[in-house]
Amino acid sequence: MTVADSASTGHRPRRGLGSALNSLPQPAAIALVVVVFLLVWQAVTMFGGVPHIILPPPMAVAEELVVVTQQLFTGGFLAGQLWITIQEILIGFGLACVVGFLIGLWVGQTQFGRRAVMPLFVLLEATPKIAFIPVFIAWFGFGITSKFVMAAFLSVFPIIIGTVSGLAATSEDELKLFRSMKAKPWDVFWKLKMQRALPFIFAGLKVAVVSAVTGAVAAEFIGGGVGFGEQIRVAGSRIALDRVFALILFLSALGLILFLIVSWLQRKITFWDSATPSPPRRRPGSVRQSGGGPGAGSAPSQTPARAHSAHPAEPITTSHPSQQSTSSRSHT
Fold first, then answer.
1. Which of 55, 74, 95, 128 is exposed most, by the fewest CB atoms within 10 A?
2. CA distance 276 to 279
3. What's this model's pTM, rounded to 2 decimal places?
4. CA 55, CA 40: separation in Å to the nearest integer?
5. Which helix (H) or strand (E) holds 34?
């Protein structure tokens, strides 16, 4: 049966599973994926023959998650370790913002920076940056300094790339327009180039803040000492994988919170660059034409100019009111 036949007989066409899934709201779709993943995980631990010491069941991870949450919110040992990791992330991210923005300005605003400096940063970006952790530990020791330096080193490149790309987004026509208005170089930079560059810079910041979490935790893995990364390493050495999963979930939540904060700042600062356009506003007194509903059978009134534009072949004639009344009486 075709769609036309079903419509003529009054039966709705059956919707497939794909259409039903596509019509779900985003929160419901995310919840469905999480529930299916947990069910598969539980089934593997129950019927797959995998030892719980290798793959703990979801309920064991949930119980350990409750224990970790209690320690965090009661000011226990893990709360101090998480605060140290947060300090490393924030200091490293702040340092990366300053250094990355300045280097991005240098590369984006000078011919020398584009020709000589940018290729070197591309080469450095292609190297495995995690391999520099022993170097930073040798230079700055096993304390917090080597950790936030690694976080800054891992998150500075997205900010440089975003700044350079944003400064290059200004078109030549826009520059000619500002020059024709005798704008000063500072006005060209601040009112034109920076306005164009801000969305690109925030795109780099969102990548950088997540990279800062990765850099700090990776440095804690290798450098040891304190921090959430060190607690994950210790739990892994004891094969307490339920504790490892619980700590990883908290680190993931921390990275998500930082990402959402940067996204919120982007919406507040670059409000003109919203991805969702506002709906068009109707003029007061305008008539909306539609195929059905109340007033669908009555045609909207048109001004002479609109009637002339709709039918250009018909001339517009005007007559005296007395002639119009005479013609109307003759018709009657």
1. 128
2. 9
3. 0.72
4. 13
5. helix 26-47
pLDDT in the model for residue 114: 85
Q: What is the pLDDT of residues 30-68, one digit of tens each?
A: 899 999 999 999 899 888 778 888 889 999 999 999 999
pLDDT digits (tens, 9 = 90+) for 15-34: 677 787 788 888 888 899 99
Q: How many whole angstroms separate alpha carbon 202 and alpha carbon 165?
A: 11
Residues 34 and 53: their CA atoms lie apart, in Å, by 23
pLDDT at 321: 43
Question: How many Å separate Cα 114 from the centre of its chain?
Answer: 28
In 3-state terms, what secondary structure has residue 165? helix
Structure tokens at 256: 């998500």
Q: Say how far apart CA 116 and CA 187 lie, in whole Å.
A: 27
Cβ(258)–Cβ(209) below 8 Å: yes
Backbone angles phi, psi at 53, to 5 degrees: -70, -25
What DSSP string describes 182-218? T--HHHIIIIIIHHHHHHHHHHHHHHHHHHHHHHHHH
Contact 258, 210 (CB under 8 A): yes
Of 1-10, 40-49, 180-189, the one with minimum mean pLDDT is 1-10
Q: Residue 298's Cα: distance from chain center in Å?
A: 47
Q: Are 200 and 163 in contact (CB under 8 A)?
A: yes
41, 252, 144, 225: CA torsion to nearest 10: -20
